[in-house]
Amino acid sequence: MATLIAQLEKADRLIIKIGSAMLVDADGSLRRKWLEGLALDIAEAQVRGTQVLIVSSGAIALGRRRLGLGRNRLRLEESQAAAAVGQIALAQGWQAALAEHDIVSAQVLLTLTDTEVRRRYLNARATLNTLLAHGAVPVINENDTVATSEIRYGDNDRLAARVSSMMSATCLVLLSDVDGLYSAPPGSDGAEFVPMVDMITPDIIAMAGAPASAMGSGGMITKIEAARIATGSGASMVITSGHHDRPLSRILNGSRATWFKSAATPATARKRWIAGSLEPAGRLVVDDGAAGALSRGRSLLPAGVRRVTGQFSRGDTVAIVTLQGLEIARGLSAYDAADAEIIAGRKSSEIEALLGLTGRDEMVHRDDLVMTGKDTA
User: Contact, 301 vs 263, CB < 8 A?
Assistant: First the structure.
């Protein structure tokens, strides 16, 4: 635990994600004093040599008050309208708080698609790197004014993890309305706090529950998914309560939190992108022999594939799943779905005769593959 805290303190690049309940009071007003405390934490991190990026929720929560939309569940178009109004107030709040420490803030609005499509991913990364090189703090939010499904599922946790992966961050901090992961819903019988997660297993995934806040739309399940992305990209991740002043300082002083250990070896930029892909276009179900070969760093050959599902093209991201339903890897398919179905279970030497062309020997080459270990059963 001390090692991970030290890693946070000495991080080269840090991502901090803030939930709506941290930034916005129940009456829909910005929690300025709390924000000022976090801005001081950020300023101190910059003095230590850490580049900081913020992923900030709160636009919809701020905008619904200004539009008089009340506290009932919003329709999609109402959420988008609230985001359009609230994003201005959110950006102004961050600008004022960071300016007190002579820090320039920058507003960056993304959708998950911006981190899924390779070209847009590279463009976003270049912009963020340029801002950091000039000492600015990017304040990133989901572009809720145009988002559709994302706006309903509270994907800023996963967006923060994708930014962490994109920017090769050392650590990702999720400031939430809960202080970490529990074995069961907090307060229920037998619920035990989990201070450290070495690996995201089916048991860890099973601990995730429903959203705990009426203000936000995320939940522990999106945080576990965020941990999978971040740790697979070589960053550690920590979940802690943000309901206290100076939350970053509290983590450094050992406050209660759940830490997720990073992978032993940081992935290459290409593999970080593959690992962080949120919506694989299809699935390749493999036998035990193929699963073992992948764990030893081998490519996936057609002979080890037992079933192909989904509609995907060559170069699309696919999930690689065991016969028991455990996702063990993700990779870029060398074949489209129709051809993959034809050569599944066959030897590589048969590909030319089956397809009438000389294709790659591998269904997914090891250079285009990263292990994940996510349960999909």
Answer: no
